[in-house]
């Protein structure tokens, strides 16, 4: 299913997107060496409830997971990259943490992810990998406009990741979003320009470049959800929800200076 949102629905999408951005920034600000992943999940649950919103993850039970997921946020550490299930793990200085959050409010969902280094350590390879996903996301957003094709976005993302030297996995990527978290079309993180679905104003897309340092192969944890690099290398993942407008793309989950401090 591909939804085209009305102006009123797009207004609600902006509200949801802003909430996702605020919560992610609040969580990043609270996360320090010694923070437990279960604390992050608990904080997320409280902030979603306080906002009168709903989690897209708690009851999520797709074919590729051992569901329901049962948690409020995905927490992926170091070699984990997608669908990281919160568990009893205490973060250490220098850990690479990805937080992936999807929320529904007013009947419209938004989805975003951030990767960052915990504490004061900044391993150069990890910083470069995070930067590559952020640049790839910016390139994908720049390619998103009415009349463009999904392949144009995928090609823009993949070109940045490949130039940075990272293998690209196409099993999981971006997706349509709207009244539900995951919709068509699938947006691979590499592709051929001029191919795929034609973008129209009112479409929402969640674009999410992610990479693993030296492999494109994933393995699944015993929890049935957490996806890790097959070689144990570090990973990074960055995501925004965007709306296709008459003029291009509007980023709905973009954080603002000081955002999250009031949560």
UniProtKB/TrEMBL annotation:
- Which keywords does this Swiss-Prot/TrEMBL entry list? Aminopeptidase, Hydrolase, Metal-binding, Protease
Q: Which residues of this UniProt protein bind substrate?
A: 83, 182
Instruction: List the GO molecular function terms.
Output: aminopeptidase activity
Q: Which residues form a coiled coil?
A: none
- Enzyme Commission (EC) number: 3.4.11.18
List, separated by semicolons, the cofactors it needs.
Answer: Co(2+); Zn(2+); Mn(2+); Fe(2+)
Tell me the residue numbers annotated for binding a divalent metal cation 2.
111, 175, 208, 239
Q: Which domain of life is it from?
A: Bacteria
Function of the protein: Removes the N-terminal methionine from nascent proteins. The N-terminal methionine is often cleaved when the second residue in the primary sequence is small and uncharged (Met-Ala-, Cys, Gly, Pro, Ser, Thr, or Val). Requires deformylation of the N(alpha)-formylated initiator methionine before it can be hydrolyzed.
Similarity remark:
Belongs to the peptidase M24A family. Methionine aminopeptidase type 1 subfamily.
Q: What is this protein called?
A: Methionine aminopeptidase
Q: Which organism is it from?
A: Sinomonas cyclohexanicum (Corynebacterium cyclohexanicum)
């Amino acid at each position: 299913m591909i939804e085209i949102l009305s102006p009123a629905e797009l207004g609600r999408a902006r509200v949801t997107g802003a909430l996702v951005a605020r919560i992610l920034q609040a969580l990043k600000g609270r996360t320090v060496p010694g923070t437990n992943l279960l604390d992050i999940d608990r904080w997320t649950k409280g902030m979603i409830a306080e906002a009168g919103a709903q989690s897209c993850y708690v009851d999520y039970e797709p074919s590729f997971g051992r569901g329901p997921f049962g948690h409020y946020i995905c927490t992926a550490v170091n070699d984990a990259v997608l669908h990281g299930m919160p568990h009893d793990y205490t973060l250490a200085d220098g850990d690479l943490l990805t937080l992936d959050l999807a929320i529904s409010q007013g009947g419209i969902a938004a989805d975003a992810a951030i990767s960052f280094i915990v504490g004061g350590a900044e391993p150069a390879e990890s910083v470069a990998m995070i930067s590559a996903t952020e640049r790839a996301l910016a390139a994908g957003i720049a390619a998103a406009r009415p009349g463009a094709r999904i392949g144009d976005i995928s090609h823009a993302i993949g070109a940045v990741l490949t130039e940075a030297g990272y293998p690209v996995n196409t099993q999981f990527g971006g997706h349509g979003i709207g009244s539900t978290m995951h919709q068509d079309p699938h947006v691979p993180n590499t592709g051929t320009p001029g191919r795929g679905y034609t973008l129209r104003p009112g479409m929402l897309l969640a674009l999410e470049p992610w990479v693993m340092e030296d492999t494109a192969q994933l393995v699944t944890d015993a929890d049935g959800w957490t996806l890790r690099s097959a070689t144990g290398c570090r990973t990074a993942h960055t995501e925004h929800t965007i709306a296709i407008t008459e003029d291009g793309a509007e980023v709905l989950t973009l954080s603002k200076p000081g955002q999250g401090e009031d949560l």
